């Protein structure tokens, strides 16, 4: 029977405690091992006992100007001032995380397959069981809202939900995954360019690279159907906007001026005003620019009929999804707990009432 209880939400299984545990030995997949940037290769991550898989591309470390210049058409005040940023090398998912991958965790697909085949759980399976107890409760409706599942990007999850998925994925695969920082996301989106979009400044070319309000037919589309950016990443502009780790702040960029900001991160402190990037299928062209930023809002749960409202779902964020990154240099357990996997604010009052 599918689990609907969250020990983390009940305060019995702190996320920080989970993050401090060592990862099990990794599931072996070709080209996934590298000790230096030069050794990094593309690879395909495979989820055991399930059909879910996704491709990861190496992104070399480097410096870039983050934000938009004052002259950029459609620029908003929170996109500046431009500042120099340095990011370390990482792998990034070639596509947005699809329902095929997300539901392996959210719907226990790997557990069902394992039980059907009579396969005994291995060390990774046993460690990942903790995250099956901290997974989304049963949604009140189909969270794809009829737009399609197989091959389509997963949507409507809170940042908390995406982060717990990354925790599960890290244990399940034995490789450390997380959401990108805002700096990593923009660096990868720009792919060495300085223009409004990764293909130039003219939005007339946007249809070749992105699904947005002018061509999406009022719904998201299958991942990877449009041209990639110069580094091979698809749908960085449009289709679904993507969660990053950062709290949205109008003055954070200004605090980074006067020096090279190395791997900056505005650690989230509140449930809302967290950043999504890239624009979506229902966004105008200007919102798909590389520097465009959007802060999450309580209105993204406006139609949630549950009392209290779910910590897992955003019923009114049909254009919000995510993709994952994997840093070349894996942080220590203490670093993960203190920064990258920092525990969410307590939300004990948000446990779903029994049906």
Automatic annotation (TrEMBL):
Enzyme Commission number(s) of this protein: 2.7.11.1
Region (Disordered): 332-355
Keyword hit for Metal-binding: no
Keyword Zinc applies: no
Stretches assigned to coiled coil: none
Source superkingdom: Bacteria
Every Sulfatase-modifying factor enzyme-like domain range: 55-304
Leader sequence segment: 1-19
A Pfam cross-reference name: FGE-sulfatase
InterPro entries, sorted: CTDL_fold (IPR016187), Sulfatase_Mod_Factor_Kinase (IPR051043), SUMF_dom (IPR005532), SUMF_sf (IPR042095)
Annotated protein name in UniProt: Serine/threonine-protein kinase pkn1
UniProt source species: Anatilimnocola aggregata
